[in-house]
Amino acid sequence: MDGYSRARFPHWITISGACNTRETVLKRDGDNVQTNRQCQAVSGTWTSPYDGATWTQRDDLDIDRMVPLAQAWRSGTNAWTTARRRQFANDLESPQLWTVTDNVNQAKGDKDPGLRKPPLVSFHCTYACSWTDVKYRFQLSVDQAALQNMLATC
Prior knowledge:
Layout: E1 14-16, E2 19-20, H1 21-29, E3 31-35, E4 41-47, E5 54-55, E6 61-65, H2 69-75, H3 82-89, E7 97-101, H4 102-108, H5 124-137, H6 144-151
Antiparallel strand pairs: 1-2, 3-4, 4-5, 6-7
């Protein structure tokens, strides 16, 4: 973890107009999401894939990075440029960013699938496949043993 800092991963960058990455993901992942002039979600419904809980308040939600920044640092992003880390932290093309229940995300921290699995067992296959996809796309190292049990649920 030498040299790691979240600040090395510029995140919640502007995507369009007043919309940053966080607001873009909230709008993408919710149903009937209404936004204000600052592009903040002011109403909508979100279902967290990690635990199946449904929320109507944005304050109950986090945007999780499938592969947490600290985990990514240990997996190879430490050698990247700031521009590449910014792309990783704000990636909307891969299954990297998810709207999830805030305390479930906080319990995950920077753990890999071998140490922390989503509470909803029916999501384990999707989680493992998404983790693998992000690691592959960004050519990050993978702990295969950490994924084997979850991939077996597919």
